[in-house]
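Aggregate trends can hide what the representation actually does to any particular protein. This step matters because it turns folding into a mapping between discrete strings. For completeness, the protein is quoted in full, as a sequence line and a line of structure tokens:
=====
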Amino acid sequence: MYVKLLNFISMINRLIYSALVLLFCFSCAGKPEKKEQAKIVKTSISDSAVKVLNYEQLKPYLVKDDDKTYVINFWATWCKPCVEELPAFEKLHANFKNKNVEVLLVSLDFPKQIKDELIPFIDKRNLAPEVIVLDDPDQNKWINAIDESWSGSIPATLIYNKNKRMFFEQSFEYESLIQELNKFIN
């Protein structure tokens, strides 16, 4: 019974996310084409600034070939499981930043939410990892390019280094995140 309930909840979450993505796509139909330079959004009352990138601009963050291990979390402020797992990524960042591990938070918040919702959210929680906003309406391209198994639901996490790459379409607690990270650094 529990498994059926989890499957039902997962199906509902995917339907809601799909509806939001479709709404986002149709609302962006008349936008002019983006320049290739990253956009920085900052408010006058905040010290926080976030880069707003399209997928082509984000791609270099997803394929680095150096001695670091990268933990990239895809999330949004409107996603309750995403917000609930953020402390695990914060703790990971604090405990591993001097151990060749880099944490990056890729927000899928809608562009109109950046100044009024995302930046205040970052400030209120004092998020230490870098936050980047992915603003690219061609989700069919970038979802599959990030990982072919990704349905597009969040939270989702990519962990990789030059030798290994794993993708997780799930929520994490700190202990389970460390277990997965240890497969890369041990």
In short: The beta strands are 39-42, 49-53, 69-75, 101-107, 130-134, 156-160, 165-168.
